[in-house]
Amino acid sequence: MPMNREDEVLAEAAIDALLAEAELTPKPGLPDRREADFGALRWSARSLAPGLAAMAAAARRSGGGTPGHPGRTAGDTPPRELRRELGAIGRHTERTMARANTGTALHHGAVWPLGLLVAAAALEPATAPDQLPAAARRLAALPDPSAPRVPSPGATVASRYGAAGARGEARAGFPHIRRALTALGTARSAGAREPEARLDALLTIMCTLQDTGLLHAAGPHGLRQVQNGAHAVLEAGGAGSDAGGRALRDLDSTLRADGLRPRGSAHLLAGALFLDILRDRTYATTALPTALAA
Question: Region (Disordered): which ranges (predicted)?
């Protein structure tokens, strides 16, 4: 599939966002720089680059245009065939990631939000980054005729508990990604350092996300434990305050001891950081393919 520099830049931005999420420390209950196999976490993120670039290329060929030709107008219904192609690329990317990590898909689930956002950015290159979740929603709303007929564990749990799940989050226009972007801006405006601003954005997602991975592993009680703990950190002043920092460390210890891993929140934070990167207008013209080449 032919790709150009714009496709690579979008994939690079998504990988940079995943790496930024991985490096963020301490993340309650989640892999971060304290992990003994942190290098494997970085390798897992980088293994997604070819697939994300292929998604961008597919979307661009479906109407994203080229420099000087803005492509589709915001709000246009995406081509149905593109949804089928994105699904096929996404499933192949997940399998490739698992093989690259000796059968362990360390970023399982991250392809869905990032792939849709990357494709939306390529399909509507004139759309502002803050508006890309709406473009991704239009993609997610289309059926994928080639999708597996057997429901995934996440879909089964979502149906059982009435949770939105990953598919519902996308079809709603990624509300938690939008909330995370707002939380980033609020924390930065209040003078928070960048790591604490990003942690507050993560906690904002954790407060209300109906994480089907948590529901599958620990049921409603485990989900409430994560949500209530995240809310307590923010109520104490956030990750950058003394009280909030103590509450964050306590939450991290509790979640790790109980084996609770809010991975869905981490993937959505990566989606928010991807859009945050794109908001830097110099990125698309000056970024070098460091993430892809590393």
Answer: 58-80
